Automatic annotation (TrEMBL):
Annotated PROSITE patterns: ABC_TM1
InterPro entries to which the protein is assigned, alphabetical: MetI-like, MetI-like_sf
PANTHER family in the record: ABC TRANSPORTER PERMEASE PROTEIN HI_0355-RELATED, ALKANE SULFONATE ABC TRANSPORTER-RELATED, MEMBRANE SUBUNIT
CDD domains the record matches: TM_PBP2
Localization terms from the record: Cell membrane
Major localization class: membrane
GO CC terms in record: plasma membrane
Entry keyword ATP-binding: no
BP GO annotations: transmembrane transport
Tagged with keyword Membrane: yes
Identification of the protein by name: NitT/TauT family transport system permease protein
Entry keyword set: Cell membrane, Membrane, Transmembrane, Transmembrane helix, Transport
Entry membrane topology: Multi-pass membrane protein
Amino acid sequence: MTSDVLTAERVRPLLVGGASLALGVAAWWALAEFSQIPAYILPSPGEVIDRAVGLASTGSLQLHTAQTLAEVGQGAVIGVVIGVLLAMVFYHVPFINRLLMPIIVVAQVTPKISIAPLIVLWIGLGIASKITLVALVVFYPILINMLARLQSMPSTMRDLARITGMGPVRRAFRIEFPYTFPAIAAGLKIGLLAGVTAAVIGEFIGATAGLGYIEKQGQDNDDIRLVMVALFLLSIIGYLLWALVGAIEKRVVRRFN
């Protein structure tokens, strides 16, 4: 009985999401087919799919998608490492927290679209500048979430580490990381969604490949179908990354518990 309930709980969101998506596509198709809106402003779903298939047949779509995924993936890894390390340092050395946190906050509130040209000028048009932008937006929510979780850690857990004589490394892996993992995962979910946006911004500013690059090409050439292909793929990438982190989080938390 419990297994049936769990299965229903897992399937229900998928069914609701699928029905919602189907209704949205149907409404889009009806609006494109039966309204007076020109196709160059609102193409039908079939026209957008045809454009995507044409790009995929030449290998272009796979190339640009792989480029954006590489930027987001590598930037996310760097952002996670920086966020976790900074959170640990800020927690154990409050003076560094007070010294550096204001600078980090100022850097984060500055619009990334304003920072992107500067990073591109410093690092160049290659993939490194996009990875830097992604890492810049990914590390912050991880830092803030993990630090808040560490600061809320019960004193009994700290006392346990002290009594058992745990060193800093052992304490981090046996107590602090397991306790803060849900916060890290939550920060990574937010960071990845922002990271996809950051990668696209970097590709808009200057790139030779990527979904943001082909979206910019579509805009410059008044190719609405190309723009929509890029948008849909970016949306799918963002959702799949978010779902992947959620699935990993469930497995890891279950193991810790």
